[in-house]
Amino acid sequence: MSISRDAILEWIKAYAAVIEENKTYLTDLDAAIGDADHGANMHRGFKAVLGKMSELADKDIGTILKTVGMTLLSTVGGAGGPLYATFFLQAGMKTAGKMELTPEDWYTALEAAVNGVKMRGKAELEDKTMIDALVPALNALNESIHDGASMTEALQRCAQAAKEGMEATIPLVARKGRASYLGERSAGHQDPGATSSYLLLKTAAEVLGKA
Amino acid sequence: MSISRDAILEWIKAYAAVIEENKTYLTDLDAAIGDADHGANMHRGFKAVLGKMSELADKDIGTILKTVGMTLLSTVGGAGGPLYATFFLQAGMKTAGKMELTPEDWYTALEAAVNGVKMRGKAELEDKTMIDALVPALNALNESIHDGASMTEALQRCAQAAKEGMEATIPLVARKGRASYLGERSAGHQDPGATSSYLLLKTAAEVLGKA
Amino acid sequence: MKKLINDPERVVQEELEGIALAHPDLVKVHFNPNYIVRADAPIKGKVGIISGGGSGHEPMHGGFVGLGMLDAACPGAVFTSPTPDQMLEATKAVSGGAGVLHIVKNYTGDVMNFEMAADLAKAEGIEVESVVIDDDVAVKDSLYTAGRRGVGSTVLAEKLCGAAAEEGRSLKEVADVCRKVKDWGRSMGMALTSCAVPHVGKPTFDLPEDEMEIGIGIHGEPGRKRMKIKPADEIVEMLMEPIISDIPYKEGDEVILFVNGMGGTPLIELYIVYRKAYEIATKHGLKVVRNLIGPYITSLEMAGTSITMLKVDEDMIKLWDAPVKTAGLRWGI
Amino acid sequence: MKKLINDPERVVQEELEGIALAHPDLVKVHFNPNYIVRADAPIKGKVGIISGGGSGHEPMHGGFVGLGMLDAACPGAVFTSPTPDQMLEATKAVSGGAGVLHIVKNYTGDVMNFEMAADLAKAEGIEVESVVIDDDVAVKDSLYTAGRRGVGSTVLAEKLCGAAAEEGRSLKEVADVCRKVKDWGRSMGMALTSCAVPHVGKPTFDLPEDEMEIGIGIHGEPGRKRMKIKPADEIVEMLMEPIISDIPYKEGDEVILFVNGMGGTPLIELYIVYRKAYEIATKHGLKVVRNLIGPYITSLEMAGTSITMLKVDEDMIKLWDAPVKTAGLRWGI
Ligand SMILES: Nc1ncnc2c1ncn2[C@@H]1O[C@H](COP(=O)(O)OP(=O)(O)O)[C@@H](O)[C@H]1O
Ligand SMILES: Nc1ncnc2c1ncn2[C@@H]1O[C@H](COP(=O)(O)OP(=O)(O)O)[C@@H](O)[C@H]1O
Ligand SMILES: [Mg+2]
Ligand SMILES: [Mg+2]
Ligand SMILES: [Mg+2]
Ligand SMILES: [Mg+2]
Fold first, then answer.
1. Residues in the ligand 1 pocket, defined by CB under 6 Å
2. Which of A97, C193, D74, D292 is the most buried (most CB within 10 A)?
C-alpha cells in the first residue's frame, strides 16, 4: 500500500479543518503557559494553505509539501511558523518529483521533517515542545515498518506514540520556547505545539491510513 | 437665648466629625451624578479646619468663621471649595468682632452666607445644587424668628427645611455644576452639595440649639 | 481597582516628587501650595501662561510645562480643581511683566477658583486674562446651565498659546489665540470602562461587559447615553457627527485632528480610530493638516477615546509647528 | 474585554492604515508583506536598522521608525513574531549599501524568523548583523533554555543604534553599540491585570482583585510568581533588586532609568514608580543621568510597569541625546 498525491492533498485539507476545529483549544493551551496565539497562528497559516490548493491540483508530492512549507513560513510567524515551515519544506525535499510514497518514503520524509525541526529549534526531548510528540512518533513509525506492520497500522502506532509524547509533556518543566519563561509554573500543562503535532499525525493516520 | 463663641467652635468641630462619618456617603452621591469627590473634598477641608482650632481658642466669631472660610478655600478645591469658603467668609464678615450671636445676628450671618453662595455660583432654586437646601432653610429661619419661636425650635425648623430641600433635589434635572452634564440622567439622584449643606444646618440645630 | 500607589491620600504629592526628580531640566515643582513651573520662570517680557485642574489627566497639565507651552500648571487633588492660592502663587511665579493668561476648563469648580485667583492677582498688580475652554459637544450648550465642559481643545490651546507667547506676542494677542481655539475647536468622548478615583478605590460607574458610555467627560462622569458596544468605525461616526455638525465647518477648511486616549486604551486602537476619523473628515471636505494621536488628556485608567477637531488658519498652523519642549509634548528642539 | 476595534482579524491591518494616514511625513507603510519604513529610505551609505516583533507593544516598533532610530519595523500579528518575508523585504527596502542591523528580541519565534530572513538577505548580497536583546532578569538565564526575554532595553537599543547609524558609523560599530546595550541593560516587569488578545477576546490570565503578577513578560505570559498586591514602593523594590544585583553595577556608574507603562497604567502612577526607582538607584550609588517615563513597550491594555536600567558611557549618553524624529519618541529636531 502506498500514499498517493491525492491522499497527501486530502491530509493537508483535513488537517486545516482539524486546526479550525481546535483553534480555541490550542490557543487555550497556549494561554496557560505561552501567549495565547498558537491556535490563531496555525489557523491563519492553514487558511492560507487552503487558498493554495487549486494551484497544487496536479503537482507532485514534493511541490505540494514545499508549497505548504513556504506558505506557513510567510503567514504563521512566532515559533510555530518557522518550525512547521521547516517540517514541510524538509519533507518536501525528500519527496521531490514523487507522485506516491511507499512506507519507507514516508518514513524518510518524516525523518527529514523532524530533523529539520530539531535543527531549527535546537530543542531536545523533554524540553516540553513539539519534539516530544514528533520524535517518539518517528521512532514508532520506524519500528512498525521493521515489524512489517501494514501502512494503516504503522500510521496508527505513529499517531499513538505522538499522543503519548504529547501527554508526557504535561508534567514537564519547559526548557525551550515561551513556556520556559515560566520555569516551574509551566509544569502541569500540556504543550500546545506538541498537541498540534499530535493532531497532524492523527490526521495522517485517519486520512493516509485508509488510502 | 444666644449663640456663644464656644458654641460656634463646637458646631465646626461637630460638623468636621459629621463629614468624616459621611465621607463615603457624600462621595457615593457624587459618583452617581458627578465625579465621586465631594466627600473627600469636604473631608480634606474640615480636617485642615480642625488643625486651626487651637489658634482660634480665644478669637471672636467673625475671625473663627473667616478662618474656616480661608482654610476651606485653600484646601477643598472643586466647586464645593469656593462655595463653602464664600459661605463662611460672608458669615464671618457679618459677625466680625462678636463674641455671641442673637437669633437675628445668626439670621443675618446665614443670609449673607447664602447670598454669597448664590452670587459665587449663580445657581437658582431647582438647579439641583446646595442652593436648594440653603434657601428654604434660610426662609424657614426667618419665619421662625418672626413667629417668635425659640432659638432651638428655629434652628430645628431651619434644618428641617434644608432636609426637605435636599430631598426635593432628587427628581430635578441639574442645570448647574457637574451634574448638569448628565442632562436627564441626573434626575433620580440626590444632590451631594445639598446633602452636605443639610448636614451643616442639622449639626447647627443639634449643637447650637442646646446652647 | 488596583493601582501602583502607596497611599490614596498621597498620590498627587508622590507624583509631583517623581516629576521633580525626573525633569529638573524642564521644571521646578513647588509644594504647598502645589504647582509645577518652568525651570527658567519668570521670563522677563514674556506673557506667562498657566493652567490647572484636577489631577488624573496626565500628561495634562504638568507634562505641558516648558518652552513653547505652559509656564506653570496647578494640579488639584484627583479630579478636583485646584485652589486659588495655588493659582495665585503660580501666577506670581510666572509673571514676567507682560501679563498672565489663565487657560481654564469650563467646570464650575475650575471657573470659580480661577476667578478668585485672577481677582487676587489683579489686586497684586498683575494683568490677567482668562479664557474658558468649553468644547465638549456631548453637553448641550445653554445659557441656563453650566454650559459645555472643557476637554481636548485645552491641549491644543496650551500648545498654540505657548508658541504665541514664546514669539513675544502681547497678552491680548495670546488670549486671542486662545479664544480662537475656544471658538474653533470641538470634542466628544466615549468610554469602554470606568476609572476609579484612588481614595474611592472602586470604579466610579459600573459598565457591563457589552456596554459603553457615549459623551463621557474626563472625570469618570457618566456620559450622555449608555448603549451596547459597537465596532470602532461606528463609534467614531457617533463621535465625529456631532463635532462636524456643531461648527459649520466649510468644505476646504483645514483642521488639526486629535485622537486622544483616555488612559487605558492602547495606541494600536487609537490608530484604528484615527483611520476612520480621518476618512470621515476627508469625506466632509475637510483637510487634515496636522494631527495628534495618543493619551494627552486622560481620565486615569479609563479605556476609551475622545476626538477633537480644531479648525486652523495659517497662523495657527505656524504656532502648532513651533518648537515645544515639555515632558509630554516635544518637537523642533 | 472591550476594545475599540472593528474585527479582531483586521486589527493590525487597520492600525497600519491609520499609521499610514497619520504619519506620511515620517513613514511609508508597505502592505503584504507588512512593514513600516522611513519615508526617505533607503539612505545611501547609512547602515539600515530594522526591528520587528508581534504587534500589541505600540509604540514599539512602528512608532520608532524615523530619523535617528529605526529604518523599518516589521509588525507581526498581535503577540506573534513577524515572518521572514516581511523582514527580508524590509531589509532590502532600507539597505543603503552599508549593511543592515537586525535588532531582535530573544523569543524563539523572533529569533528563528529573523535568522531565516538574515540568511535570505545575505544570499541576496546584503551584509546583515543581528543582535539579540535578552535583558529580562525575571527569567533565569541558562545555556539549556531559551534564555532571557528581550524587553525594555530594546527601546533604548533602537534609540542608541539609530543615532550611531545616523552619525555614519559602520555596521560593525552600530552593532557594537547594540551589543553594549544588550550587555549593560537589565529589566523586570509586573502586572496588575492581564491583557486580552483581540482574537481571543478574554483576558489571557485571570488575576483576582487583590493579586499581582511579578516578573511578567510583554505577551500576557504569566509572570514568575503571583502574590498579594503591595504598595508601589515595595513593588518597585521587588523589581529593582534583581536588576541591580544582576549586573555588578559599581558605585558611581551612570545609568539611564526607564520606567515603562504596560499600556493600561496611567502616567500619574509611573511617576510614583519613578520616584522610588530613582531613590533606590541613588542609594546604590548609581547616577541617573537620563530617563524615560511612559508607555513605550506595552502589552495591549495590561496594567503594570516594567523598569529598565542601562549603564551608559559617555558615547552612549551622546547617542541618547542625539536628535530623533519618530511618532513615538522625538527630540532635538
Ligand atoms: N525551540 C523549539 N523547538 C521546538 N518547538 C518549539 C520550540 N520553541 C517553541 N516550540 C513549540 O512552539 C509552540 C508554540 O508555538 P506558537 O504559540 O505558535 O509560537 P510562539 O511561542 O512564538 O507564540 C510551543 O508549544 C512548542 O511546542
Ligand atoms: N453653581 C453652583 N452653585 C451652587 N452650588 C453648586 C454649583 N455648582 C455645583 N454646586 C454644588 O457643588 C456640589 C459638588 O461639589 P464638589 O463635588 O465638591 O465639586 P465638583 O463638582 O467640582 O467635583 C454639587 O453637588 C452642588 O450642590
Ligand atoms: Mg504562542
Ligand atoms: Mg464632585
Ligand atoms: Mg471634583
Ligand atoms: Mg506568539
1. A 30, 34-35, 37-38, 41, 78-80, 83, 117, 121-123, 129-131, 176-178, 191-194; D 80-81, 108-109
2. D74
Domain of D310: which CATH number?
A: 3.30.1180.20
Domain boundary among D183, D218, D251: D183
- pLDDT, tens digit, 9 for 90 and up, residues C86-99: 999 999 999 999 99
How high is the pLDDT of residue C160? 98
Give yes or no: residues D251 and D282 share one domain.
Answer: yes
Residue D80 and residue D83: Cα distance in Å, rounded? 9
Mutation for testing the C interface, residue in D1, D240, D271, D287 having most C CBs under 10 Å: D271
pLDDT, tens digit, 9 for 90 and up, residues D53-70: 999 999 999 999 999 999
Q: What is the mean pLDDT of residues A163-179?
A: 95
Residues D220 and D233 in one domain: yes
From C23, C30, C61, C219, active-site residue: C219
ipTM over 0.85: yes
How remote is the CA of residue A145 from the centroid of ligand 4, in Å? Answer: 79
What's the pLDDT at A211? Answer: 54
Q: Is C80 on the interface with B (CB under 8 A)?
A: yes
D104 band by pLDDT with thresholds 50, 70 and 90: very high
The DSSP bridge partners found for residue D255 are D288, D311
φ/ψ bin of C332: left (φ > 0), alpha (ψ from -120 to 50), beta (otherwise): left
The model's pTM is: 0.95
Q: Would you state the cell numbers that stand for residue C210, as one nine-digit string? A: 457589552
Q: Using the predicted structure, report yes or no on whether residue A209 has a pLDDT greater than 60.
A: yes
Model confidence at D98: pLDDT above 80:
yes
CA angle C218, D277, C327 (to 5 degrees): 45
Instruction: Give the per-residue pLDDT at D247.
Output: 81
Contact indicator for B37, C80 with CB cutoff of 8 Å: yes
C and D touch with 3+ CB pairs <8 Å, answer yes
Listing DSSP states for D262-308 in one string gives -SSS-HHHHHHHHHHHHHHHHHTT-EEEEEEEE-SS--TT--EEEEE
pLDDT at B211: 54
The answer to whether position C303 is within a domain reads: yes
Taking an 8 Å cut-off on Cβ atoms, the answer to whether A120 and D112 are in contact is yes
Has residue C3 been placed in a domain? no
Domain of D62 in residue numbering reads as 12-183
Q: Which residues of C134-170 are buried (b: 16+ CB within 10 A; e: fewer)?
A: bbbbbbeeeeebbbbbbbbbbbbbbbbbbbbbbeebe
Judgement on whether residues C192 and C319 belong to the same structural domain of the protein: yes
Is-catalytic flag, D57?
yes
Joined together, the cell numbers standing for residue D190 give 509586573
CB contact under 8 A, C77 and B83: no
**Average pLDDT for chain C:** 96
Q: D127 CA distance to ligand 1 centroid (A)?
A: 29
Q: How far is the alpha carbon of C108 from chain B, nearest alpha carbon, in Å? A: 6
The predicted pLDDT at position C145 comes to 80
D33 touching chain A per CB within 8 A:
yes
* C-alpha angle B129-B131-B136 in degrees, rounded to nearest 5: 130
From the candidates C74, C104, C112, C148, which should be mutated to test the interface with B, based on the most B CB atoms within 10 A?
C112
Q: How far apart are CA B114 and CA B135, in angstroms?
A: 7
Nearest CA in chain A to D139: A181
C232–D4 CB contact, under 8 Å: yes
Q: At D211, is the secondary structure helix, strand, or coil?
A: strand
CATH 3.40.50.300 fits B3-208, yes or no: no
Cell (9 digits) for B82: 469656593
- Kindly report the protein residue whose alpha carbon is nearest to atom 2 of ligand 2: B121
Top-confidence residue, A139 or B185: A139
Is the pLDDT confidence value at C119 over 60? yes
Identify whether residues C60 and C202 lie together within a single domain. Answer: no
CB-defined contacts C:D, below 8 A: 176
Secondary structure class of C332 (helix, strand, coil): coil
